[in-house]
Amino acid sequence: MWIITTHKISHDTMATEIISHYSIEKPAISFIRHNENLTYQVVDESTGQKYLLRIHKAAFASMTGIQHTRPALEAEMNLLYELRATSPLRVQIPVRNTSDEWVTVWLDEAGEEICCTVLEWIEGRDIKQGERLTTAQIHDLGVQLQILHQYGRRPTGAPEPQVGSLKSESGQQTNDREQHADKAIISEMYTDSDNPTLKQTEVRPAYGSIKENLVMLEQLEEGVRRGIFTPEDFDLIRETFENINGQLETYPHKAETWGVIHGDITRGNLLVTNQGISMIDFCLYGYGYYLFDAGGAATIFNREERDVFLSGYTEQTGPLTRRDIRLMEGFMLIFTFGYFAFQMENESRYEWMKERMPLICSKFCKPYVQNESIFYEL
After folding, report:
1. Does residue 203 sit in the same domain as residue 146?
2. Are both 117 and 184 inside the same structural domain?
3. pLDDT of amino acid 152
4. Are residue 160 and residue 105 in the same domain, yes or no?
5. Once rounded to an integer, what is the mean pLDDT over residues 92-112?
6. Is the same domain home to 106 and 186?
7. Number of structural domains in the chain
8. Beta pairing partners, 33
9. pLDDT over 60 (residue 239)
10. Domain end: 68, 99, 121, which one?
11. Whole-angstrom Cα distance, residue 287 to residue 303?
12. Which residues are 39's β-sheet partners?
């Protein structure tokens, strides 16, 4: 479905116009935030049903990526549809527009295409500042993440996902990443050839590969040119990336290690519900090493909690090897650096980045390249 405008209008007016193309009888919209997406809560006042409207236009250029394109969004909506239908994961349900499509395309007065999607709202609450999850919740998150990482492991002949034409996105994500920087069921019946995820990186983002790491390194080098990072710190960052990429050169790239990942497990993307913890905001989902996702999730927790998380994550697969842990520590650093790259166009974060990067380099990068463990420190 296409909506075409010939004059400039406000975001609220745009949201109202977009939601009119969904089967919501009496919608009332309210702004949530504008970060990687412009988001609104929508309440159907005739039924009480709540929805999340996402207008996929980032606040800053550095936040824009392949995930904002129509094919990528159709893939995301299809993923959520299939996860909800075929797994125990408590994910948001995608909603079609009145043309029976996942994605509504807004064509603005300048001819720019802006994609929009709607999800059913999950009732729950954000994790509060400083709140500690229970042992059961932490373990459950590990189990859920492992279930997600098994998505796409289909035996030969299993049906492929339906082609898609088939909150809370809270503002806490930024705070969660800032706090982290501050404290600086696998079966033999599945084969790599059966795994469709190994071929999908043209549609969704890829994470943690040698190629992607080099791209991120270039983005971080821009921080030196802008006077945010010192050349000395960047030299250590480069050495850290070289160390991680050296490990990846010989690390297995197959269905057991690489596939669908959330890509952005932070406290701001977890919701406490009556049924347990729910992972939300799959807008950055893509493909990468499962250890990238696990490493990012581990940074949420303190040292004792990390063991609980890993016990849930490895419950069905067996313990991680020393090699796995070493690479996961590297991905924890990549995940941390990703926030800096993501905010490179946001000048309001420059002073914060200037303060934090020297600490990250001295406390974590230096020991890491000296082959010291940082799993319980970062």
Report:
1. yes
2. no
3. 55
4. no
5. 93
6. no
7. 2
8. 39
9. yes
10. 121
11. 27
12. 33, 54
Strand-pair category, 286-289 with 206-207: parallel
Query: For 114-165, what is each residue's pLDDT tens digit?
Result: 999 999 999 999 999 889 999 999 999 999 999 999 985 544 333 333 333 3
Query: Which pTM was predicted?
Result: 0.84
Burial status of residue 285 (CB atoms within 10 A of its CB: 0-12, 13-18, 19 or more): buried
What is the domain range of residue 89?
1-121
Domain end, chosen from 74, 102, 121, is at 121
Q: In this structure, are 228 and 90 located in the same domain?
A: no
For residue 299, give Cα distances in angstroms to 31, 179, 289, 303, 336: 29, 10, 16, 9, 9
Per-residue pLDDT tens digits for 285-337? 999 999 999 999 999 999 999 999 999 999 999 999 999 999 999 999 999 99
**From CA 267, how far away is CA 201, in angstroms rounded?**
26
Residue 162's pLDDT is 35
Using alpha carbons, select from 362, 357, 335, 365 the residue that is nearest to residue 230.
Answer: 357
Does the structure show a pLDDT above 80 at 95?
A: yes
